[in-house]
């Protein structure tokens, strides 16, 4: 069993910053890709940023230059630094991880953390 636990969401004013964290724990052999999706009310879940085990990254066009994804492989943790936040960044943010376990390669998701950008 693998658990992903997120932290760092909250309420922030436009132009502000937040850092999200997501730690994976459990019976993990290795972790491949990690990343973040978000879902705003009435909208589909969308990819925000991803990072491979080797450190290659990709971002949604809407967050390029403002958000930075990173990971600490020793801690099985992925981070999302969000700067210059806009009201349209308001959403529930979910981390994901591609994890090799005894049964094979599976996708795991966090419970979600609310980010609200409002004055």
Topology:
Elements: E1 2-7, E2 10-12, E3 18-26, E4 30-39, E5 46-51, E6 57-59, E7 67-72, E8 77-82, E9 91-101, E10 104-109, E11 113-117
Parallel strand pairs: 2-11
Antiparallel strand pairs: 1-3, 3-8, 4-5, 4-9, 5-6, 7-8, 9-10, 9-11
Descriptive report:
Helix content is 0%, strand content 60%. The chain is mainly beta and 119 residues long. The strands form two sheets. Strands 2, 4, 5, 6, 9, 10 and 11 form a seven-stranded mixed β-sheet that branches. β9 and β10 (104-109) form a beta hairpin. The radius of gyration is 14 Å and the shape is elongated. The termini are far apart.
- Encode the helix/strand succession as letters: EEEEEEEEEEE
Strand content: over 45%
Q: Residue ranges: pLDDT <50 for 5 or more in a row?
A: none
Q: Based on helices, strands and strand pairing, what is the structural class? A: mainly beta
Tally of strands = 11
**Major sheet details:** 7 strands, mixed
Using the CA coordinates, give the radius of gyration.
Answer: 14 Å
Shape: elongated
Tell me the distance between the termini.
40 Å
Q: Tally the helices.
A: 0
Share of residues in helices: under 10%
Mean pLDDT: 96
């Amino acid at each position: 069993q693998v658990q992903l636990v997120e932290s760092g969401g909250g309420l922030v004013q436009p132009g502000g910053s937040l850092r999200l964290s997501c730690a994976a724990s459990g019976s993990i052999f290795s972790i491949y890709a990690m990343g973040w999706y978000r879902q705003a009310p009435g909208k589909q879940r969308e990819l925000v940023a991803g990072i491979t085990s080797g450190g290659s990254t990709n971002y949604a066009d809407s967050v390029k230059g403002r958000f930075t994804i990173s990971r600490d492989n020793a801690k099985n943790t992925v981070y999302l630094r969000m700067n210059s936040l806009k009201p349209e960044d308001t959403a529930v943010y979910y981390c994901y991880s591609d994890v090799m376990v005894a049964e094979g390669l599976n996708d795991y998701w966090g419970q979600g953390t609310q980010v609200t950008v409002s004055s």
